[in-house]
Amino acid sequence: MSRPVLLVVGAGPGVSGSVARRFARDGYDIELLGIDHDALHALTADVERTGAVAGYAHVDITDAGATAASIQLAGERRRRIDVVHFNPSAFREKDPLELSVPELLEDLALGVGGLLTAIQAARPFMSAGGRVTATGSMAADQPWHRAASLGVQKAGLRNLVRSLDTTLAPDGIRAVSVTVCGRLSQDGRFTPDRVADAIWDAAGQDVDTWLSEVEYGG
């Protein structure tokens, strides 16, 4: 039987990288999608040091066609996708009086729309027991006014995850967002590795008591 496969959408050196390494250590092969070629190359090497097989595609997640095509190729190559982890968001330091509608929509295309593209493309390769996880943020409930679009993205992401969970549940696939209730740091409770552990735990919830949102550090 082939090893399970984790697809990381928006892969990079932070939480998404820690998630990739966490799942790889527990027996998953990894597919990475992201825009930073150097970060993808470095993360692929990290994952392969665990003994996992890793592949990556250099793609702008806001390019729906390219993203869907990359996921389809990964699914056809692996013949399965067991977990999709969605990580990207756009940070734009503008308050609501400075932020334009086109800028807001551009940020939403990455931080929310990217999840829609990813799951629609990955769904043909997922089966019962599959999971969708997403990196959420306390910004959904406590937005910083100087980065107004980030709070809208995270609120929208959480809402979409809940809809996905309800839609996919009859097929045995569940979705969860992990709301990180603190700032990422290099030490303490909010290191990328500890957040990745929380995401791993959320994906492994008992289906009978499944929650579509889990808070970490609240």
Automatic annotation (TrEMBL):
EC number: 1.-.-.-
Keyword entries, A-Z: Oxidoreductase
Top-rank EC class of the record's enzyme: oxidoreductase
UniProt GO MF annotations: oxidoreductase activity
InterPro entries named in the record: NAD(P)-bd_dom_sf, SDR_fam
Sequence similarity: Belongs to the short-chain dehydrogenases/reductases (SDR) family.
Name of the molecule in the record: SDR family oxidoreductase
Organism annotation: Phytohabitans maris
